[in-house]
Amino acid sequence: AQVAAGADTTFSVTVRNVGSSTANDVVVNDFPPSVFVLRDASPSQGTCSIDATSNRLECRLGSILPGGVAS
C-alpha cells in the first residue's frame, strides 16, 4: 500500500514462541526505512523505546510462554 508523504501509518511486529519452553528476556529491534519517522510504540507486553537518531525501535517484551504471542 502507498502512504502519502506526511501522512500517518501504522505497522506491527509480531513475535511468536514456537518452541517448547518459555522464551525469556525477549528483545526486538526494528529499523524501519528512514522515510518513516517513528512516533509511538504500544507493545502488548513489556516496554518499547524509540531512538530518533538511528530510527530504531527497541521493545523489551520479557517472557513469552510456549505458543505465546507478543506484538
Task: Give a description of the structure.
The model has no long low-confidence stretch (mean pLDDT 93). This protein has strands at 15-16, 23-30, 47-51, 56-64, 69-70. 0% of the residues lie in helices and 37% in strands. The chain has 71 residues and is mostly beta strands. β3 (47-51) and β4 (56-64) form a beta hairpin. It has no helices and five strands.
Briefly, what is this?
With 71 residues, the protein is an all-beta fold. 0% of the residues lie in helices and 37% in strands.
Total DSSP E strands: 5
In quaternary terms, these chains amount to single chain
| Biggest sheet: strand arrangement | 2-4-3
Biggest β-sheet: count, sense, barrel?
A: 3 strands, antiparallel
Radius of gyration over C-alpha positions, nearest whole angstrom: 14 Å
Distance between the termini: 21 Å
Would you tell me the structural class of the helices and strands?
mainly beta
Proportion of beta-strand residues: 35-45%
How would you describe the shape? elongated
| Helical content class | under 10%
Number of helices: 0
Report mean pLDDT, rounded to a whole number.
Answer: 93
SSE series:
EEEEE
The residue ranges in which pLDDT falls below 50 over 5 or more consecutive positions are none
